[in-house]
Amino acid sequence: MGGKIDAYIDVVSPYSWFAFKYLRDNRELLRSHAVEVEFHPFFLGGVNVATGNKPPWTLPAKAAYGEFDRKRACTYFGVPYHPAPKFFPILSILPMRALLCIQHSPNPRISSTLEPAYQALYSALWIAPNIDVSAPTNLKSELQKVFHAHGLEDEVAEEIMKQASSEEAKAWLKTNTEKVVAMGGFGSPWCWVRNGEGIEEGFFGSDRFNYMWDFLELPARYLEIVQRVEGKRKAKI
User: Fold this and answer.
1) What is the pLDDT of residues 200-214, one digit of tens each?
2) CA 183/CA 188 separation, integer angstroms
3) d(C-alpha 149, C-alpha 127), whole Å
4) At how many degrees (to 10) do helices 93-103 and 154-163 cross?
5) Mean pLDDT for the stretch of residues 5-22
6) What CA–CA distance (Å, rounded) separates 17 from 129?
7) In angstroms, rounded to a whole number, what is the distance separating the alpha carbons of residues 140 and 157?
8) How many Cα atoms are found within 13 Å in the side-chain-facing hemisphere of 174?
9) Cβ atoms of residues 163 and 94 within 8 Å
10) pLDDT interval class at 229 (50, 70, 90)
11) What are the E-state strand segments in 23-130?
């Protein structure tokens, strides 16, 4: 047993939010089996271009179905459901660069806010009143809230925003995006998993965790139909 889950996620994808929440909610259980989780920002749009993948919202049938599916997923994963904002999709390059600047900060007080920053951007984008976090002013405001909550000064958000436009930040994002493509990834969330034997495989989506647990040889309970109890109208699954 044991292993590592490297989750590559972009805030533009609501299904990445589901995977992000699920992995965080189960982190302590995973640690009890010596499985570590790490999140990595990347640019989904770049992966789509490199692989020829078409986002579901570009195909009318998938877009229509997607709202039903996302509503069901929100219920399952325990996140509030709101229709996709009118300005969706966003160009997520700047938010992803900013998250990478947080992750790469030599100051542990800043780098430790990566996951809270991810959560803040997901909530801002996907929960009403729906904030366009690709807009620099909005992005800076959301990051300031995170930094304030963790006792950091206003100047930190300013520094992160400035660094997000640097050649270094551009290179970080390019590297992570190309890494996902090289691993065979074509969307988000993309999880690269190493098991206790050192074998590595990729897993796409927020509904493949049962396969991931099998690969990691983790004891898990899967969904199953339960025998009807007299007086109950529906079986629980």
Assistant:
1) 999 999 999 999 999
2) 13
3) 20
4) 120
5) 97
6) 17
7) 6
8) 6
9) no
10) confident
11) 35-41
Task: Give the integer Cα–Cα distance in Å for 146 and 150.
Answer: 7
Tokens of 44: 């989904």
What is the reported pLDDT for 148?
97
Q: Among residues 209, 204, 169, which one has the least CA distance to residue 42?
A: 169
- Residue 39 φ then ψ, to 5°: -105, 145
**What is the tens place of the pLDDT at every residue in 62-105?**
888 988 899 999 999 999 998 889 999 999 999 999 999 999 99
Whole-number Cα distances in Å, 73 to 62, 82, 142: 15, 12, 25
Omega prior to 189 cis, within 30 of 0 = yes
User: Can you read off the two tokens belonging to residue 130?
Assistant: 């729906």
Cβ(121)–Cβ(11) under 8 Å? yes
Q: What is the pLDDT of residue 137?
A: 98
